[in-house]
Amino acid sequence: MAKRLISNRTNKKMFKMTPWLFLLPSILILGTFLIYPILQAFHWSVLDYKLISGTGEFVGLENFKELFTDKAFWNALLNTLLFLLIVLPLNIFLPMVLAVLVNQKLRGVTTFRVLYYLPFVTPMVVGALMWKMLYSQNGMISDFLVKLGIFDSPTNLLVQQGTALVAVAVITVWKGLGYYMIIYLAGLQSLPKGVYESAEIDGASTFQQFRKITVPMLVPSITLVSILTIIAGMKVFDEIAIATGGGPAGATTTLVIYIYNKFMSLDVSIASAAGLVLLILAIIASLLQMKLTSKREDDLRA
């Protein structure tokens, strides 16, 4: 009897341990590549850390004070927010429209799905260099804008302070278009067909169905796309580094580019402080977006 009780207790302990054993690889990966770097960044942010010697004197919040008095930091923060304001609505709306179009039962629609998805699987280095050529003074875009009368002479949008950030944002939107389209497409294919049939009987037009049925019922997908866009927009680096390098005159220097420049100048402590600020801003922005869209979801269920 005693042996049976001990065996039962052992089995119960093993049963409780099983989920943690399955989670262990994920915990180790997250701990190694996420938690540890964040803790290390926090450690460096309160030190006057010297990367070459590997030592640093404790300075408390002095690095944050220096960061918040740096005009280049505020310029980078403003550029990051402006970049998000450009990219977020485009990433929410354009892929949704594409998803609705490729969700139709049309001949050859699979080919269009593949074509729209191609930019996402194209390496950013290749994509950014391609757009850099298109934006060049002799490129197609420059020639097209002259024909429209927007510019009097061929102009490279990437070297103009007023247009460089928008030009880079277009590259980002183009790159993620297919990926976000797939998310919306999955949401569309899970919607009940009966709702649309009832709307057609009531005489609703295609646009009315899109506005009154499709958009409200895709709120969960919109939430996911919004959060992914905010996170990606906050840490945008490749397209800016390749296309503009943060120029002209800091017009496309975002927080990640600012952090990168600080690391390259061996100012590790300031870079770590800026990285923590970026992390906090990304979390706040994501939580705010989740709160706004969850309210829409609650209204939809009601």
From TrEMBL:
<comment type="similarity">
    <text>Belongs to the binding-protein-dependent transport system permease family.</text>
</comment>
<keyword id="KW-0472">Membrane</keyword>
<keyword id="KW-1003">Cell membrane</keyword>
<feature type="transmembrane region" description="Helical">
    <location>
        <begin position="164"/>
        <end position="186"/>
    </location>
</feature>
<feature type="transmembrane region" description="Helical">
    <location>
        <begin position="268"/>
        <end position="288"/>
    </location>
</feature>
<dbReference type="GO" id="GO:0055085">
    <property type="term" value="P:transmembrane transport"/>
</dbReference>
<feature type="transmembrane region" description="Helical">
    <location>
        <begin position="20"/>
        <end position="39"/>
    </location>
</feature>
<dbReference type="InterPro" id="IPR051393">
    <property type="entry name" value="ABC_transporter_permease"/>
</dbReference>
<dbReference type="GO" id="GO:0005886">
    <property type="term" value="C:plasma membrane"/>
</dbReference>
<feature type="transmembrane region" description="Helical">
    <location>
        <begin position="215"/>
        <end position="234"/>
    </location>
</feature>
<keyword id="KW-0812">Transmembrane</keyword>
<keyword id="KW-1133">Transmembrane helix</keyword>
<dbReference type="InterPro" id="IPR035906">
    <property type="entry name" value="MetI-like_sf"/>
</dbReference>
<keyword id="KW-0813">Transport</keyword>
<dbReference type="InterPro" id="IPR000515">
    <property type="entry name" value="MetI-like"/>
</dbReference>
<feature type="domain" description="ABC transmembrane type-1">
    <location>
        <begin position="77"/>
        <end position="289"/>
    </location>
</feature>
<feature type="transmembrane region" description="Helical">
    <location>
        <begin position="240"/>
        <end position="261"/>
    </location>
</feature>
<feature type="transmembrane region" description="Helical">
    <location>
        <begin position="81"/>
        <end position="102"/>
    </location>
</feature>
<feature type="transmembrane region" description="Helical">
    <location>
        <begin position="114"/>
        <end position="134"/>
    </location>
</feature>
<dbReference type="Pfam" id="PF00528">
    <property type="entry name" value="BPD_transp_1"/>
</dbReference>
<protein>
    <submittedName>
        <fullName>Lactose ABC transporter permease</fullName>
    </submittedName>
</protein>
